[in-house]
Amino acid sequence: MRNINEDNITQAVIAAMSQCSNDRLRTVMTSLVQHLHSFARDVHLTEDEWFAAISFLTEVGHITDERRQEFVLLSDTLGLSMLVTTQNNRKPAECTEATVLGPFFVPQAPRFENGEDISNGAAGAPCFVSGRVRGLDGAGVPHATLDVWQSDEDGFYDVQLPPGSEGDIEPRARAQLQTDADGRFHFRSILAEAYPIPYDGPVGQMLDALGRHPWRPAHLHFWIQADGHEPLITHIFRNHDQYLDSDAVFGVRSTLIVDWLHHEPGVAPDGTKMDVPFYTVEYEFVLNPLGAHA
């Protein structure tokens, strides 16, 4: 493999992968090399720009840890996450649309029963969330598992806050629940607010250089899993949020925008007497059966 030049380098790299026994890996890497090389040719990438890109990705790696996934953030802000989500979640129109997972999901969230308060001290106006999970046949899906997570009124998720005295992250506004026999669920939390994605690292610097803001519209995350149905990763968004049409991660779907109703002090849906204003929001999630196609 000698005398490589800009005309034959792409084919040389592809040929070097010819012995790969994993067909899918070889297909993906061949396409990746072709597109990377085409990009470098299209923009006539300079050596300084190449080094700047390497330094940028190095910084993305350095700032990533168990509490912060800067690579997911990079994928989100470049629209790659939403592209992968949409092309892997083609479903019948009646099904609830999927959107991005985001960088703040944590597995094995605390278990809560329906009706309990999941906020655990997170700051924000009280909000009572209810809804139903059903299938395409209209029947409620019993015992579906719901992972739910959100930021507080200052825009911080629990994993972004300082650890407790023992060095652990205290879960707040994060929970795992199950639907009842009719597919229904309800819990108390706090009002979702718009917030900026972390912009104190390389991804934030990239957004600033591109003249983009880091804000996401107010939303509540759901990951729903149930036997016999495809899993659903999605959000519900607050109607009238100023960032609905400029979400930094391109995740808004019109079908996921919901009215979060304001109530003066009084009796909440669960019978609690509230001395402060509160909110309610309700949504019905429709799951796609396993093996079904759009």
From TrEMBL:
Matching InterPro entries: 1_2-HQD/HQD (IPR039390), Catechol_dOase_N (IPR007535), Intradiol_dOase_C (IPR000627), Intradiol_dOase_core (IPR015889), Intradiol_RC_Dioxygenase (IPR050770)
Origin superkingdom: Bacteria
UniProt cofactor(s): Fe(3+)
SUPFAM superfamilies the UniProt entry points to: Aromatic compound dioxygenase
Coiled coil: none
UniProt keyword terms in alphabetical order: Dioxygenase, Iron, Metal-binding, Oxidoreductase
A Gene Ontology BP annotation from the UniProt entry: catechol-containing compound metabolic process
Domain Intradiol ring-cleavage dioxygenases: 129-157
PROSITE patterns: INTRADIOL_DIOXYGENAS
GO molecular function: catechol 1,2-dioxygenase activity; ferric iron binding
Family, similarity comment: Belongs to the intradiol ring-cleavage dioxygenase family.
Protein name per UniProt: Hydroxyquinol 1,2-dioxygenase
Protein's organism: Paraburkholderia fungorum
